[in-house]
Every structure is written in structure tokens, then in C-alpha cells.
Amino acid sequence: MRSEYRSSIRSKTLIRNALLSLMAEKPFDKITVTDVVNRADINRGTFYAHYGSTLEVLQKIQSDATNE
User: Fold this and answer.
1) Through-space distance between the first and last CA atoms of the chain, rounded to whole angstroms
2) Residue 4 pLDDT grade (very low, low, confident, very high; cuts 50, 70, 90)
3) What is the CA radius of gyration of the chain?
4) Do the beta carbons of residue 47 and residue 55 sit within 8 Å?
5) Distance CA 13, CA 21 (A)
6) Which residues are CB-neighbours of 29 under 8 A, at least 6 positions away?
7) At CA 60, angle to CA 5 and CA 48, rounded to 5?
8) Does residue 61 register a pLDDT over 60?
9) Are 29 and 7 in contact (CB under 8 A)?
10) What tens digit of pLDDT does each residue of 29-52 get?
11) What are phi and psi of 25, to 5 degrees?
12) How far is it, in rounded angstroms, from Cα 24 to Cα 47?
């Protein structure tokens, strides 16, 4: 496995976990990209390299859950 591939998976996991954690604390429509990147301890560029918005992250989480 290439390190870039592993880091991509790690970043996506951090982003998804951060969003889920934040959703336990406040309504989804109040969660910003800044909230997610702060919780995941990543920079905004990393977030936008993988997702275009918090809604896109949520849709990916839902899609993955449906496919399992």
C-alpha cells in the first residue's frame, strides 16, 4: 500500500468520525467545515481534497451504511 493511499483513508475516516461526533452534539445544519476540521485536527485543504461540503460527507456515510 502506498503511503498516500493510507493517508487518504486516514483523513476520510477522521472527517467522518468528526462529523458523526459533532452530530451527537448539535443539529447537522449548524455544523460547519471549520467545526469538522477542528474536531478532526486536519486542515481545510485536506477536507476539500476529499469532500466538497459537510453534506457530501453525510451522504457518503449514509451510502456506506446502505451498502453494508
Assistant:
1) 24
2) low
3) 12
4) no
5) 12
6) none
7) 60
8) yes
9) no
10) 999 999 999 999 999 999 999 999
11) -105, -30
12) 20
